[in-house]
Amino acid sequence: MSTPDEDLVRKAAELARLELEPGETAALARDFAVILEAFRSLQSVEVDAVPPMTGASELTDVLRDDVPQPGLERDDALAAAPAPRDGYFGVPRVLGVLGGEQPDTERKA
User: Fold this and answer.
1) Strands (E), the chain
2) What residues pair up with 84 in beta bridges, in sequence order?
3) Which pLDDT does position 69 carry in this prediction?
4) What is the set of domains in the chain, with CATH numbers?
5) pTM of the entire predicted model
6) CA distance linking residue 74 with residue 54, whole number of Å
7) In this model, does residue 100 exceed pLDDT 60?
8) Contacts of 84 (CB under 8 A, 6+ apart)
9) How far is residue 69's CA from residue 95's CA, in Å, rounded to a whole number?
């Protein structure tokens, strides 16, 4: 990967919905470069003799049998919801919201 530039920093900030102060992008680009260089240095580590692993230890989880049990009734679950709508949990729209635009809190029909 090439050296991160200020455009990459601005794009990452937009995707993360971060507001950067003027002048922060240059410092963050330098920080990104340091982080990427640390990852590049890992490429030189010889790992051919290291067996693959899925975790840091050999321990395995002890799981119980999956036994169906009754759940909450709809009205009981919705009683604790902050914004129930029409028998469902109401949530703000977040998909398609970029560039500082505020998410919709109302469902559109």
Assistant:
1) 84-85, 88-89
2) 89
3) 93
4) 6-42 (1.10.20)
5) 0.43
6) 39
7) no
8) 78, 90
9) 34
The H or E element containing residue 12 is helix 6-15
27 φψ region: left (φ > 0), alpha (ψ -120 to 50), beta (else):
alpha
User: CA-to-CA distance for 61 and 54, rounded, in angstroms?
Assistant: 13
Residue 50 half-sphere exposure toward CB, CA atoms < 13 A: 6
| Two tokens, residue 79 | 């009683």
Q: How far apart are CA 75 and CA 54, in angstroms?
A: 42
Instruction: Using the structure block, give the residue that is written with the tokens 């067996």.
Output: 51
Over residues 6-56, the pLDDT tens digits come to 899 999 999 999 999 988 999 999 999 999 899 999 989 999 998 888 888
User: Which pair of structure tokens corresponds to residue 50?
Assistant: 């290291």
Q: Which residues pair with 85 in a beta bridge?
A: 88
The Cα 54–Cα 95 span in angstroms is: 33
